[in-house]
Amino acid sequence: MTDRAAAPAQRTTHRSPAELRAAVRALAVTFRLSAELRTRLTLSVARVAEAELRAGRPVTLESSYEQTTHRQSLTVRLRAPQTPWAAPVEALPLPGRHEAGTTVWHVPLPGQRRPSALESADPSPTELLEEELRIAVARADALEADRRRLTHELDETNSGVLALYVQLEERDEQLRRAHGQMLRELEDALRPGPMKVDGLELAIHYAPAGTDAPTGGDLYDWFQLPDGTVHITVVDALGHGLTSTSSALNVTHAVRTLALEGHPLETIVARTDEILLPYDRELMATVLLVRLDPASGHVVLANGSHPPPLLVSEDGTARFLEVRGRGIGYPMAGSDRLWHEDLAPGDLLVLYTDGLTESRRDPYEGERRLVSAAVRHRHRPTDDIPGALAEEMHTVILHPDDTLALTVRRSR
Amino acid sequence: MKHAAPEPIPDGPHTVLSCTVTDEPDGPVITLSGDLDYETAPDLLAAVTALAAPAGTTVTLDLSGVQFFDSAGINVLLRARGALHERGAELAVRRLSAVVERIFRITGLDTVLVPDARTATGDHEDPAMG
């Protein structure tokens, strides 16, 4: 290698840390190492030699310089000839390694020897230290500024992510609201709106068995016939969810058509069964039909398998109006007879589905509780009563089911 | 055929029905114990359709141990009855528990499946107070 040049190795022996440090610094100045590299090399050499010097044994510092076409480098060796073990080189400010009983640092030198920041030809140890300190402080400041900038960036990123989450949550909430709104509109479309009839107060409460299927098999219908009497249908179709809603709608529509066509009330349950069963052999529904004359308070009932309405009088007496009959899809479908009753002003008629009375699995127990609840709530505004009954009947739910409660009061 | 059923859990999310078949002089008797509802209805239908019930046979359901009975229970009784009618066999019920008796009365099912009056167990008073 003709383009290789090497200066002869220089070797000095040291017995104190201060002396060793001064020698390393002088070496660094000679080779015009940067102040930072000087600091790192000095601190590293001093640390490796520390234990040896404290033990009173000398160390030897060797330096050699090599130059090739492309680079030049300085090799620094610390020899501790009497050491029983090699000093550790882990985590030194300037990494070094063990090589045949010495600790070695290879320090690459810049392509061109740059003049040191120090103008003085022979800087004093204090000047060297001050320069190193100044650079260390500047570096610490730069790092601190970097840290602040990164922390700020991180904060901004975090708040951006947070804002994104908030935005997503708002979107989610909007979708939930829209979804709920759509379902409510769908339910409203299925159920007739409030009906105002002079002489009567009508109120309704409906709740499905599950929140995932907002509509169930419980449905009602009310309308006024040409002669002024009010017709109410309450139906409970077998099953839960939309399929049972569809069955219940078929029943209320068939009943409505038959009633408006003038079919006698006592035939409507049987006739509805005859009409619908050929199209749906699986259809099964209980149905209660109520006719009210708003002027006289006269009530006529027909029933197919449906739980009996409860009549609560103004004076607090109560009784169930049981009309025998079998519902849609039952053998021998039809109401066995009609029930006639006269409502006095203030009397309350409670129509419901079995979800109201069988939430604790026992119909007797449910009927007893319904009687006492209805008697207790009878003086509340009619609009509040169905909800109040449902709330009281459902304090414990062992058997969740669609629930409907409908109240009719003859105005006082 | 005997289904070994664990203890019914009245408040649990799942209901249990056991169906025990015995042969009596008047025909096979299935004694039900537990809840007859949407979840257990297929068990009863399977028990009835698996019976060797030739034409003319009357299969009797003993309902004294039924603790819960709803519209799905009614539906399965009517299905079982229909399945037996197809074979020329008949379905009868006896010893209705109080809960079953009330539902039979409300729904008018007692006029379709007339319980044997001598063995009825339900004796509740009218729940409506005067």
TrEMBL record, chain A:
It comes from the Bacteria. It holds the Pfam family SpoIIE. Gene3D superfamilies: PPM-type phosphatase domain. Residues 197-410 form the PPM-type phosphatase domain. SMART domains: PP2C_SIG (SM00331). Residues 126-160 form a coiled coil. Keywords: Coiled coil, Hydrolase. InterPro entries: Bact_Sigma-Reg, PPM-type-like_dom_sf, PPM-type_phosphatase-like_dom. This is Serine/threonine-protein phosphatase. It comes from Streptomyces kunmingensis.
Automatic annotation (TrEMBL), chain B:
InterPro entries: Anti-sigma_ant, MlaB-like_STAS, STAS_dom, STAS_dom_sf. Signal peptide: none annotated. Pfam families: STAS_2 (PF13466). CDD domains: STAS_anti-anti-sigma_factors. Residues 17-130 form the STAS domain. Belongs to the anti-sigma-factor antagonist family. This is Anti-sigma factor antagonist. It comes from Streptomyces kunmingensis.
